[in-house]
Specification:
By secondary structure, this protein is α/β, with parallel strands linked by helices. About 25% of the residues lie in helices and about 25% in strands. It has a nine-stranded mixed β-sheet with strand order 1-2-4-3-7-8-11-12-13, sandwiched between helices. Strand 5 and strand 6 form a beta hairpin.
Length: about 280
């Protein structure tokens, strides 16, 4: 059972945050923020939040409301949509948690648009260029994270048959030196294709890891269905939604554990140990 909190974003608009606490006596000094995809309710990520909390993490999932946002193809026009923003992520990170003594570490996992927001959070130039991000002029990420996981997301300009005007395809992307990022792609994802994900990964300095899940598609990472899901653009999954999610939990848990336990040099072994048959693992 999750606790629900209501916060205010930078414009004074309320949004909810779901908080999943670890079992009594099993808490670790680990906090994980999960950023939903566009138009995906926070509850569609219970499949990931609950097992991570069961392993001892405090897990937060912002639940952005339906608001007008600049269109990704024409920022001069606005669309009604539920987009998580960098500001909402920052507000969620500011919530008190059990390890506010400074000894805890923080991870962020983002799916689809949430994964793009994670990458923008780490790269001020990208954040400030995105009119949807909620990052103002002079933005600097206020909280240091220990690692991040990007699921079904890219920062490529050319995506889904259109071009996002504030993005680039080839310029280097920034993240704090030494920060490990894991990218999880689906070989049947028609929205964030493995090729586009790989192109984004190539724009980062090491350390990075990428796993292409055999048979996975884009909406296999969100529970249930949403009215605004772009399923017509997605590929057909060979994995069942349950199997795709279970495989992703194994990958994310293994990756985060290597960092939480200060064993980043074992990321390749950890991912290969839990990867499903046919998955492609690349670590550098």
């Amino acid at each position: 059972m999750a606790d629900i909190y209501t916060l205010l974003d930078r414009d004074g608009t309320p949004f909810r945050v779901m908080l999943f606490s670890p079992p009594a006596g099993r808490g670790r000094a680990v906090r994980i923020v999960i950023l939903p995809g566009a138009n995906c309710d926070a509850k569609r990520y219970r499949w990931l939040a609950e097992p991570l909390a069961a392993e001892g993490a405090t897990v937060l999932v912002p639940d952005p409301p339906q608001l007008e946002h600049p269109s990704p193809t024409d920022p001069a026009t606005k669309n009604n949509a539920a987009y998580v923003t960098i500001d909402q992520m920052i507000k969620a990170l500011a919530m008190p948690w059990d390890s506010d003594n400074g000894e805890g570490i923080t991870f962020v996992v983002g799916h689809s648009l949430g994964g793009s927001i994670l990458m923008e959070y780490l790269d001020p130039a990208q954040a400030m260029s995105d009119p949807r991000s909620g990052a103002g002029a002079g933005y600097v990420p206020p909280v240091t994270i220990a690692g991040g996981v990007v699921v079904g997301a890219t920062l490529q300009a050319d995506i889904m048959g259109t071009t996002i005007p504030w993005r680039q395809n080839d310029t280097a992307l920034a993240k704090p030196p030494g920060l490990p990022l894991l990218f999880v792609a689906g070989d049947s994802d028609g929205i964030a294709t493995p090729e586009n994900v790989a192109a984004t990964v190539a724009r980062y300095k090491a350390p990075t890891a990428m796993v292409v899940q055999n048979g996975a598609n884009h909406f296999g990472w969100a529970e249930g269905e949403g009215e605004l899901d772009l399923k017509a653009l997605d590929g057909k999954a060979a994995l069942s939604p349950a199997d795709q999610k279970a495989a992703t939990i194994r990958l994310i848990a293994a990756f985060l554990s290597t960092i939480a336990d200060d064993r980043p040099d074992t990321i390749a072994n950890a991912l290969n140990d839990v990867a499903a048959e046919g998955d492609q693992v690349t670590v550098r």
